[in-house]
Protein 1
Amino acid sequence: MQIPRSHPRAASLHIRERLVRGYRDGLVVEEGLLAHGRGEMFDYLIGEKTSKTSHEAIKAAARMLLLAKRSVISVNGNLAALCPKEIVLLASVIGAEIEVNLFYASKKRKKVIAGILKKNGAKEILGLDAKFSQKIPNLDSARRVVDERGIFIADVVLVPLEDGDRTVALKKFGKKVITFDLNPMSRTAQAADITIVDNVTRGMQLLIDSCKKMKKSRLDKKFKFDNKKNLSQSIIIIKNNLGRMTHA
Ligand code: PTJ
């Protein structure tokens, strides 16, 4: 589809096209298109830009990832369609593993996702070989199946666009969880250690930049981040944006 450059919502429509292409190429499930629509709605409400609050969360996430002993980036269909380059780049900057982990699991889709990551420079991708499968407890969805060389033994897991059940299960399993979620009220957003309320299409590159910058400085191991407070600030941003649009 041709999207005129002058279209006021061109940027958002281009991102949508990436998802549709990802769906046609077998990376994204139908449900992923719906999940994206929900994300678009929240992006609209936060003003389609990275807030100061989200910049704070990005900095905290960079610090946690750089201090991790073993970090893993968990990749689903939507993330692979939207930011394949950024996934590979972030993994190389922080020395993380990349693991494909799907809610609507299928061998075929895992292969397609791994293919796109390899095309973007990934060397090793976990989550593909059933020989290394382990299950995280307290979870019924397909996402409980993880790689024993990856999420199973990681101390920090980055899980963009995650479902709430697994975030809670990962927390119970002793993992530190960082997520990207445009909905600050979602169960994942509320259960994670650090929630970046931002579109992955903006936030992933900002996280890479922050990690690169922070790598050069000494990291404070005792840093504190109040996720609930940060999320409340995002909800206030939404409330204020709604207030500005209300003329009654
Ligand atoms: O590829 P699979 O099989 O693992 O399935 C992936 C989806 C995304 C379909 C699956 O994990 C799912 O159903 O997710 P949910 O429960 O709908 O949660 C997705 C969350 O991500 C929602 O809170 C959305 O608001 C948010 N979201 C959607 N698009 C973006 C986003 N957050 C950040 N950036 C986005 N582009």
Protein 2
Amino acid sequence: MRKIILLGYMGCGKSTIASSLSKNIKIPFVDLDKKIEEKTNLSINAIFEKHGEIYFRKLEHEVFLELLHSPDELIIGLGGGTPCYANNHELLKGEGVVSIYLKASIETLFQRLAVNKSKRPLLADKSEGEMKEFIAIHLFERSFYYNQAQYNVVVDDKTIHQTVLDIMDLLA
Ligand code: S3P
């Protein structure tokens, strides 16, 4: 059954947009990070602290594959780094997959992440000044992977509702 995959940098709104899309089109939403947290009984922060990032990336790949192979139609919200490891980007073009990159500018991401970085191990220890430069470089490095998605939807200056309508247009 079809999988609708939402991807994009931390703070682009994947989970919020996916939840709203799910209500509108009546397809269940699974958040990959939440699924990993449930399986391990650990928060993403704790996984990074206890086991390190490489362990997390392996787990992320396995759980992503599991969701892709599930018999159900699903909306899957990826973590910000998911497409950039373990050849996950190749899975964005698989059969029965619709992948959508939620594209946000550095400024939008910075504004959103500055107030909400503690749950994100890659940002938690950064000052505001460091964060802006980090986001700019990181987004540039990751763009190749994000651009493997079948569709792009720009989220800057749009309400959740407008973004969901844009996605529904693509799916129609
Ligand atoms: C990460 C993004 C996070 C989470 C982990 C690593 C990344 O997900 O998977 O902290 O590498 O960008 P969100 O994009 O949902 O914050």
